[in-house]
Amino acid sequence: MRLKDARSFWRIMRSVSLREIEVEASRSISVALVGLPERRNEALSRLFPDKDPDTAHPLLRTFATIAEQDGFPQESGSFDLVLDAGGGWAPTEAHISTVSILELRGWEAAVERILDEKPGLALALGRRFAGLRPSVARRIIRETSMANAEFAMLNALPGIVPVLGLLVPTTIMGDMLILAKNQAMMLYRLAACYDLPLDLRARAQDAVPLLGGSFGWRALARELVGIVPMGVGLIARGVVAYAGTYALGEAMRQYYELGRRPGRAEFHRLYRSAIGEARLAVASLQSQMRRLPSPRALLKGRSDDAGDA
Length: 309
Hints:
Distance between the termini: 39 Å
Shape: elongated
Number of domains: 2
Mean pLDDT: 79
Structural class: mainly alpha
């Protein structure tokens, strides 16, 4: 399937399982916030930047400490996440895991720790807590960009090392379908993170910048299928896939967060700013590929297996 026109784009958008994203984003989660009153208020202002910290927040429960005498449940698994804003720890026989903002020396580090330890909750947390959305959204963008870079590099391998055409599954030997579907998935996940409706009609206007623009999927395809010599092709394809996907994702994140749709000049700026990060990501992927068995070793292994049989 070639990405030649808008009809291909809409077929790809419809192929994404919105139900899976909806289930992930709507997952029931329980969050506790512990600590001194002034520290809790600081954390609440971070979690709900558009609300008064003194307003009741039904999405979480607050306690002075994790001690039973302060009303904190001692049963294991009472909360999916316990955030300690400062001064919330207390001796207790219960095994209660907390993420401490003070110990991690700042809100940003605490958020990254939460997302590292609770990846399955990231989308649901972003949807419920506006203060977590930028971090969750950027992680979605980077993960998708990395996945597309890896795919683009693997897709280039058969042309760089012809023998790999016999070894690499045909599912990664096609055109831009996988890259485009990953980008569509990214768009829907970003929408879910910002608590927006997950349906094709509602997201149609969001997707307009992805159609036919300098950083649309067809433009990305033209760059990726360009003939480039040997290993340079591997690196170039990975960088283009990463930076192109990142620019699209960051444009959507800014639109959802700020309500401002980036123009062509902003797309160019986002793309250029992503090149440095893309090179670092691709260098990491290339290092991992170098540790893989060589094509001859793979063929030898197959021959040995056939001989044993």
